[in-house]
Amino acid sequence: MSKNDTKKVQTDADVKKKAVKMVITHLKKKIGQPYVGKQNMDDWIIEMETLLSKQEFDIGEYFEMRKKLNDIIERTIDEEMRYKLRDSWYSLGKALDKKVKHK
Fold first, then answer.
1. Which of 42, 46, 39, 35 is nearest to 81 (CA)?
2. What element of type H or E holds 2?
3. What is the dihedral of CA 38, 60, 54, 22, to 10 degrees?
4. I want to staple 13 with a disulfide (CB 3.0 to 4.6 A). Which of 53, 57, 58, 73 is the partner?
5. Are 16 and 59 in contact (CB under 8 A)?
6. CA–CA dist 94, 85 (Å, integer)
7. Within 13 Å and on the Cβ side, how many CA atoms surround 32?
8. What is the pTM of this model?
């Protein structure tokens, strides 16, 4: 059996999950300092990491999490933090649009 025969075929769901994980990693770095409402963001990240740990991929659940993130952003008082979180919201949307590249 050759090396290529054992290679896992990537699906759109695999690509989306990987991209979402990268967004979450960057988001964690952004929210390192304390701010009013940080606990809401921390709770959302825990919920998202739980979702990412699931074997199955239900795009609807990820869209629901994006809506929740938007609600958290709208309730964030710190304007600078709100802009940082908004960038992550956009990045999350782009991550959910990713697809496998075909040669």
1. 35
2. none
3. -50
4. 57
5. yes
6. 14
7. 4
8. 0.85
